[in-house]
UniProtKB/TrEMBL annotation:
UniProt protein name: Endonuclease/Exonuclease/phosphatase family protein
Domain Endonuclease/exonuclease/phosphatase residue range list: 4-278
Domain of life: Bacteria
Source species: Pseudooceanicola marinus
GO molecular function annotations of the record: endonuclease activity; exonuclease activity
GO BP annotations, alphabetical order: GPI anchor biosynthetic process
Signal peptide stretch: none
SUPFAM superfamilies, sorted: DNase I-like
Protein keywords: Endonuclease, Exonuclease, Hydrolase, Nuclease
GO cellular component term of the entry, any: membrane
Keyword Nuclease: yes
UniProt xrefs under InterPro entries: Endo/exonu/phosph_ase_sf, Endo/exonuclease/phosphatase, GPI-anchor_lipid_remodeler
Amino acid sequence: MNLVTYNIQYGLGADGRYDLARIAGEVAGADVIALQEVDRFWRRSGMVDGPEVLADALPRHHWVYGANLDMDASQDDGTRVISRRKQFGTMILSRWRILSSRNHLLPKWGDRLHHSIQQGMLEAVIATPRGPIRFYSAHLSHLGAATRLPQVEAIRAILARAPAEGGAWCGGHPDPDSGWIEETEPPMPAAAILMGDLNFTHDSAEYAALCGPVVPRHGRLCPRDGLVDAWVAAGQPEASGATTLKGGTRIDHCLLTPDLAPQVRAARIDTDSTGSDHWPLWVTLG
């Protein structure tokens, strides 16, 4: 199973050219694709419906989109209002059916001077060949640890409570013919994979909150309710790799529940991609 996470910068490439078809080509080989910074009806990206363009270019993938930033972009032609939303969010595409989906808005920092936008985490329960798995595409604040840590705590809570909440609907209905139950109860599995532009590095407090703290004697501790970095599970040094053209280190991640970690076979960063100011992070599960 090949996974990829990619902050596509709404299709604006390293060459300054806007090209969603190029983005689609760079991720077409993946079974599950997590995208961030996907636009709908922004002037900067040509007023196109980004999710629809990407979906058309990947016709064998199912898809869901989560709008985190949602504002008016409607027009009035004098006879009718054309209702349209200017949106910015995350997207998940899958070769296999997406059984259910939710978009979780994360805590937003309000600032008087610095640009701060609503961020979120899109959830998709996917019917993979190895059974249902929860996949998440997330984009966290770029401002700093102070704005990301509340988002990380919200993510921890969402991941922890989801199995107990059940699927998109759960339980029976007193009237089987009411139309409320048209399929078997959708699952909400414990197994989960969090992908996205998390905007933090391996040595940050945010990473420690999700994957475990570092202590002098033993190094990285591994909490039983924590996540496992697929990059490390694949045998890569924790401090290695960079996922943006600016260099530095990894701020795009693929984190898994511990039950999935033994299935990780490989992880790589596609530094040949030119479709964004980030590079795609690929992970293979056996």
